[in-house]
Write the structure tokens for this entry.
Amino acid sequence: MKDFGEYHLCLKRRKKSEFFVKVPCILRRLTMDDREEALALHRVMASNANPELFVPGTDEEFLHILDGGGVILGIHDGRRIVCMRTVLFETRDEEVLREDMKLLPDQMRRMAFIEYCVVHRDYRGNNLQFLTCFFMEDLLWDDFDYFYTTVSPRNLYSLRNVMDCGFYAFHLKERYGGHMRYLLRKDVKHSPSIRMKRHVSAPLRDYRTQQRIMNDGLVGYRLVRNTSGVWMLFGQLIK
Ligand SMILES: CC(C)(COP(=O)(O)OP(=O)(O)OC[C@H]1O[C@@H](n2cnc3c(N)ncnc32)[C@H](O)[C@@H]1OP(=O)(O)O)[C@@H](O)C(=O)NCCC(=O)NCCS
């Protein structure tokens, strides 16, 4: 894997509800030297997470990633880690890779599972989920061709960001013990062409219709908001 240096970012931090200050921060790869602090943040998140929105995984899974089973980027504001983005170099969803993504064994080895991104409340609104995805893509460019991730249809902030990063939804099914998730993929080396001209759409809350549309081979590529809520637009992949 490529080396990853340090990047200096000046981020806005929320002081009171509508009052911001600018804070110089550093983006870098976290290592086992960051273990205590990173694990503490992971634990805070895990204890507050609503599984309908987001399941962060166990301490062991987190440490496995930090120890080389994947990679973690972190942003530090001089006092604490304020953002983490984790990627696992394997997935427990082999069936999805084989059956739904139609990856061959060689291709499976070139697939990374984008686990999660968390941003401290005070730093939300700096596009860090989006930004860290692109840094991650650059870091993993030589070693991986496919990214796979899951996002809850109720986690709108995350879903919007993930789709802005170039992921498209190819399935909607239960994951993590019965919680609905979009399954999304990004082909890192090829920008997908999606036929948008004759697109169809469905409300995010209408799981059945969306599942039917995706079973017909269409993929979800954009979110739009109208008077009846947020809808997903679906189009045909042009291969
Ligand atoms: C999802 C998440 C990483 C997005 O953070 P982010 O990259 O800072 O989000 P954005 O920069 O796109 O934020 C866009 C706007 O939405 C707001 N926003 C983002 N996440 C929000 C949240 N969870 N609740 C309320 N508002 C939120 C931001 O404040 C910003 O508002 P503004 O335009 O008025 O400034 C962050 O919400 C988070 O850490 N959530 C908890 C963990 C999680 O669900 N992770 C995703 C699973 S992988």
User: Anything to note?
Assistant: The chain has two domains: 7-191, 192-239. The chain has seven helices and eleven strands. Residues 53-54, 116-119, 124-129, 155, 157-158, 161 surround coenzyme A (CB under 6 Å).
